[in-house]
Every structure is written in C-alpha cells, then in structure tokens.
Amino acid sequence: MELFLQAEFWLAVGQIIMIDVLLGGDNAVVIALACRQLSPALRTKGIVWGTVGAIVLRVILIFFALTLLKISFLKLIGAVLLIWIGVKLLMPEGDDEHGNIQASDRLWSAVKTVIVADFVMSLDNVIAIAGAAEGAGGDHKMPLVIFGLLVSIPIIVWGSQLVIKLMERFPAVILIGGMLLGWIAGHMAVSDPVLMPWTADAAGELVPAVKYAASAGGAILVWVLGKYLGRGKSKVGQADV
C-alpha cells in the first residue's frame, strides 16, 4: 500500500498510460482490422483476448528490456531510439502501414494475428515504457509497468477513437507526447552505467541538475527535430502532388 502513496509512482503510471495511448493507436487499428470479419458475437471476444495476449507479451518483453538496460551503452542506444520514436510521432503520417494485416472469420486465428502483429510493432512501446519505469527508480518497476498497462487497456480498446479525435482537434496532445518521450530519453541517457561516474553523486544517485537538464534537453531535441524534419516531409509531399 505504501507504493500507492508515492508521487513518483503515480507520475510514472501517468507517463506509461500516456505513452501507451499515444503509441497504441497502431494497436487499436490492428485489433480492428484483424477482427473485422468475425461475427458480432465473436468480435468482442476477439478484441478482448487479442488485447490480453498482446499485453501479456508486452509485459514479458518489458521485463527483458528492464534487465538489459542495466548493461552499459544499452540505455544510450535506447535513448537514441526513443528520440527517433518521438520525432516520428510529430511528423506527418505517410501511407497506410496496415494494409497487410489479414482479417479472419475464426476467433483464434484473429487473436493470433493481433498478438503477432503487436509483437512486431511493440518495440516503441516497450522501450518507452521501460524508460518511464526506470525513471521512477526503486524496486517496483515491474508492478509499475503491469499496473500502468492494465489501466491503459480499456483506454486503448474502447477509448482509441476518442483519443484519435482529441489528437486531431488538439495537435498539442501529440507534441506533448513526443516531448515526453524525449524527456524520458534524456533521463535514460545520463543514467547509463557508462556515464554514471560523471552524472551520479557519492550515493550513486543521479545529480538532480544533470537529470533535469538532460531530460529537458531530450524534450527540446524531439521538438526541434520533429518540427524541422516534419517541415521537410511536408514540402516533399506537396512537390509530389
């Protein structure tokens, strides 16, 4: 119970939910496409079981990610990937990437499609959520990850359309999400074991000034790169037209 009274816990849960909602749009699309040919009676079961299977798989992947992040240089690599994921989130969308998702009129075939597709597409979520859990510190990383994912399930499955409409109406939601990934990336980078001799204090904890400067720097970097590359992509798209 003491865990639920800590501000850092709820801050990290909020980050995980926001990450999963922003990066979970693809997952909602996959679920819809894979289950579209199921009968109405089976469609809800397909959505629920496909989502449960995908979430369990993601928890397993995040467990390995949290373990691997203890190895030198892997946090730096993860931070670079997070920066790129945040930048991609801010750039104009290209062609539909879900055209190869096969629908099925059989329940377990549709569930398998959802789980396999989610496995292929989960790298961004896994890295981002592992980074948010790492940032919370302490010995409660996996409970934090599981709790955050469980809370986000109904948001992804039943609230995805609402979230998409909010993003279309308020583009700032996407900007905040992209910069959040940059914030987590900055913190992840300076907490890499190879840099800790220079970024940590005598107790082995990150120096607050370094932590917040790196986090803010990551957020600003995502914003600047997203704006610059997005502008270039828009010009290319207009030229093609």
TrEMBL record:
Which segments cross the bilayer? Answer: 12-35, 47-66, 72-91, 111-132, 144-163, 170-189, 209-226
Q: Which residues form a coiled coil?
A: none
Q: Which Pfam families match?
A: TerC
Q: Where in the cell is it found?
A: Membrane
Q: How does this protein sit in the membrane?
A: Multi-pass membrane protein
What InterPro entries does the entry give?
A: Integral_membrane_TerC (IPR005496), Integral_membrane_YjbE (IPR022301)
Keywords from UniProt, A to Z, are: Membrane, Transmembrane, Transmembrane helix
Task: Please report which protein family the annotation says this sequence is part of.
Answer: Belongs to the TerC family.
Q: What is this protein called?
A: TerC family protein
The beginning of the lineage is: Bacteria, Pseudomonadati, Pseudomonadota, Betaproteobacteria, Rhodocyclales
